[in-house]
Amino acid sequence: MSSNKQSLPDIRQTVSYAKYLKSQGWIVERIDNINYFVKKIPLLGSILKIQRPQKLDWDGIDVLIHRYKPFQIIIEPANQLQAVSCMQYDYKLSKSPYLPSKTIQINLTQTKEQIFRNFTKSARYSIKRGEKQKIKEHSTPQEIKIFHDAWKRSAKFNRYVPSLKTFLNLKKSFPNNTSIFLASHNIFGNIIGGALFTISSHENQNFATYYMYGFTNKEGRTSLSQYALLYQGILWGKKMGCKIFDMEGIYDDRFPIKSWLGFTHFKKQFGGSEVLYPGCYTKFRLPF
Description:
Helices cover 34% and strands 27% of the residues. By secondary structure, the protein is of the alpha+beta class.
């Protein structure tokens, strides 16, 4: 089942995410509970980015255009009605969305047993096999550094690995029980896989858990540790009172990225419903 309707606040529209992007060097404007992100680009000016707001405020956008004079405005609509509005304002569909345009969401209001039954037989087997490894939370800056170092060692030279600063900023922006770094260890205590999950919350109410990052080394892939890690993230989100678990992206043939096919097969084994977003709409303008 596919849908492009969003009923819950997207994580990009939370106060925590605004704090995170600010720590990454973005200017953040929050007007009427809508996050607007501005990035200054040397020699070119600035860009203005609005990602999956629950409403599109064109008057507010116009104010920020006059204030920051961006050469590019990027809007990633939350639903098709917003996409139509973008086209009415002469925004063009981009070939490359900034956010995943297709994802899978799992209903966390089900019982633990119902959620597990919706997994494929292969996934259920892999989870039980992967549970033999010890899964530990990494929460202090020192532990997060160990987590980051393990990811760097596991990655191929052409694989993107977020910086340690990015991870530390994420933890500061999503403190306490709104983010969790989980790592699976072998019998020698070495990290063989890891995953990072964050929570979209508003006014102390948790809405959704997001599968932000994941990695495994060769040993982790052989032992199928990624299955147990993801399952623990799903259970953590349910424990924290979230309504949905968002896989945060799968392959979309409208905007094909072939390298996404592998992890899409992995994610689809956990059931859930596919959710479609319109993509990304942009407009270029003279920066004055």
